[in-house]
C-alpha cells in the first residue's frame, strides 16, 4: 500500500502548479483509480495475523469554511471510503482508514485549488458583467455549483464503468467509529446564486473535464 500511496503522491505532484487546473483534475481521477485498485486488497483482505485496521480522523485546518468546501468534502469522502466532518471556524476533515484518509486529504486540497482556479478564470470571461461584488459572488456560486455537480457525475461514471461500487464500501472499523461518534449533522449553509444557467453549465463541463488521464502511471 505504501507503494500505491507514493504513486498517488507522484501523480498529485504533477498538479503542483495550480495554473494548470486540468492536471489537478487528472490527478484526482488517477488517485481514485489507484485507491480503488489497491485499497481492496490492503483494507478488506488479510490474514488472521494482521492487525485489525483502525479508523483515523484526518483534519485540514481552516479558519473559514465556505458552503462549497462542505459540498466538495462530501463528494471526496464518498469516493474515497471516508466520512466527512467539520468544525466551523476551525477545520474540515475525513474519517476513514489511515491510507484512505491520507489520499482523501490530498485529493481534496487539489480539487479545491482546481475549483478556485477555474472559477476565477471563468469570471474573467464575464468581464462585461458589472454587477456588485455580491452579485459577482452569486455568479461564482452558480459556476461552483455546476463544477461540483460535474465532478460528482465524473466519479459516478467511473464507479459504474470500472465496477468499483463494492470497492468503495467503507470498512467496518470506520462505520463502527462513526456510529459511536454520533456527530451532529451541520445546518445547511446559506448560499445565494443568480440562477445563471451559462455559469452553471460551464462549471459542470469543467467539473467533468478529466481529459488525458495519466493512466500509464497506474501499476
Outline the secondary-structure elements.
Elements: H1 2-13, H2 21-44, E1 56-61, H3 67-79, E2 83-87, E3 91-96, H4 98-125, H5 133-161, H6 172-181, H7 197-208
Antiparallel strand pairs: 1-3, 2-3
Helix pairs in contact: 1-2, 1-4, 2-4, 3-4, 3-5, 4-5, 4-7, 5-7
What report would you give on this structure?
The chain has helices at 2-13, 21-44, 67-79, 98-125, 133-161, 172-181, 197-208; strands spanning 56-61, 83-87, 91-96. The protein has 7 helices and 3 strands; from the N terminus they run H-H-E-H-E-E-H-H-H-H. The longest helix has 29 residues, at 133-161. A 3-stranded antiparallel beta sheet has the order 1-3-2, with helices on both faces. By secondary structure, the chain is mainly alpha-helical. It is globular.
Q: What structural class do helix, strand and pairing data support? A: mainly alpha
Average the pLDDT over all residues and give the rounded result: 78
Number of strands: 3
- Give the end-to-end Cα distance, rounded to a whole number of Å: 12 Å
Main sheet: strands, sense, barrel: 3 strands, antiparallel
How is the largest sheet built, in terms of strand order? 1-3-2
**Helix-strand sequence:** HHEHEEHHHH
Number of helices: 7
Briefly, what is this?
With 219 residues, the chain is mainly alpha-helical. It has helices at residues 2-13, 21-44, 67-79, 98-125, 133-161, 172-181, 197-208; strands at residues 56-61, 83-87, 91-96.
Question: What are its keywords?
Answer:
3-stranded antiparallel beta sheet, 58% helix, single chain, 219 residues
Amino acid at each position: 500500500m505504501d507503494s500505491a500511496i507514493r504513486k498517488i503522491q507522484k501523480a498529485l505532484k504533477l498538479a503542483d502548479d495550480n495554473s494548470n487546473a486540468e492536471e489537478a483534475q487528472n490527478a484526482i481521477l488517477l488517485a481514485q483509480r489507484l485507491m480503488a485498485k489497491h485499497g481492496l486488497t490492503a483494507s478488506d483482505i488479510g490474514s488472521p495475523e494482521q492487525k485489525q485496521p483502525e479508523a483515523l480522523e484526518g483534519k485540514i485546518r481552516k479558519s473559514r469554511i465556505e458552503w462549497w468546501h462542505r459540498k466538495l468534502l462530501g463528494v471526496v469522502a464518498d469516493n474515497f471510503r471516508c466520512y466527512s466532518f467539520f468544525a466551523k471556524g476551525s477545520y474540515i476533515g475525513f474519517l476513514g482508514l489511515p491510507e484512505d484518509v491520507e489520499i482523501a486529504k490530498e485529493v481534496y486540497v487539489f480539487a479545491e485549488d482546481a475549483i478556485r482556479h477555474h472559477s476565477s478564470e471563468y469570471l474573467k470571461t464575464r468581464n462585461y458583467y458589472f454587477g456588485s461584488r455580491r452579485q459577482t459572488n452569486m455568479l461564482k456560486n452558480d459556476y461552483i455549483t455546476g463544477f461540483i455537480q460535474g465532478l460528482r457525475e465524473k466519479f459516478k461514471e467511473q464507479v459504474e464503468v470500472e465496477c468499483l461500487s463494492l470497492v468503495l464500501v467503507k470498512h467496518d472499523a470506520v462505520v463502527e467509529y462513526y456510529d459511536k461518534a454520533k456527530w451532529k449533522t451541520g445546518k445547511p449553509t446559506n448560499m445565494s446564486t443568480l440562477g445563471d444557467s451559462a455559469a452553471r453549465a460551464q462549471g459542470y463541463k469543467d467539473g467533468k473535464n478529466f481529459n488525458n488521464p495519466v493512466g500509464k502511471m497506474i501499476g
